[in-house]
Specification:
This protein has 159 residues and is an all-alpha fold. Helices cover 70% and strands 3% of the residues.
């Protein structure tokens, strides 16, 4: 599916706040909710090594920090097309580097923000070249990050 553009703006897709916020909610917040469910609905010791309490702390810190970094990079750079290109490349690269930390939602947040700056969000200025490629990579990483969070937690629940 390709985006339709009118006067240089993308007409389809999610608005940028919903794209980035949704990635954060569906990865970081959902993972914290799964860990909270482990505390509330199981008889497992929540203080065990790598248990839900330590997981909630690490997920919240890393995921929140990723959101803060992504917005700190994106908000000043989104004002100009050249800045948006640089931001899309930087955040797309951060999404790839952060893949080992998928449990925190960091790759999903970085990837969604890269997609926004690449013009893949509604109302965005479509970019070309490396910026567009990193935006596409970013949205793929974001989707895979959300799937990994849900699949991993559902596998843990079912086992």
């Amino acid at each position: 599916m390709s985006a339709v553009t009118t006067a240089g703006r993308t007409d389809r897709g999610l608005p940028a706040p919903m794209l980035v916020g949704g990635a954060f909610v569906l990865s970081t917040v959902a993972n914290v909710a799964f860990q909270t469910g482990d505390i509330l609905f199981t008889d497992n010791d929540p203080h065990r090594q790598d248990g839900p309490i330590s997981s909630i702390v690490s997920i919240s810190v890393v995921g929140g920090l990723a959101l803060a970094v992504a917005l700190a990079v994106a908000l000043p750079l989104m004002r100009s097309p050249a800045g948006a290109k640089v931001g899309a490349i930087v955040l797309g690269a951060l999404a790839l580097v952060a893949v080992p930390f998928f449990w925190s939602g960091a790759p999903a947040v970085f990837g969604a923000t890269a997609a926004w700056l690449a013009g893949l969000a509604r109302g965005g200025q479509p970019q070309s070249g490396a910026a567009r490629a990193f935006g596409v990579i970013g949205i793929v990483v974001a989707i895979l990050g959300v799937v990994a969070v849900f699949a991993g937690n559902l596998a843990a629940i079912l086992s």
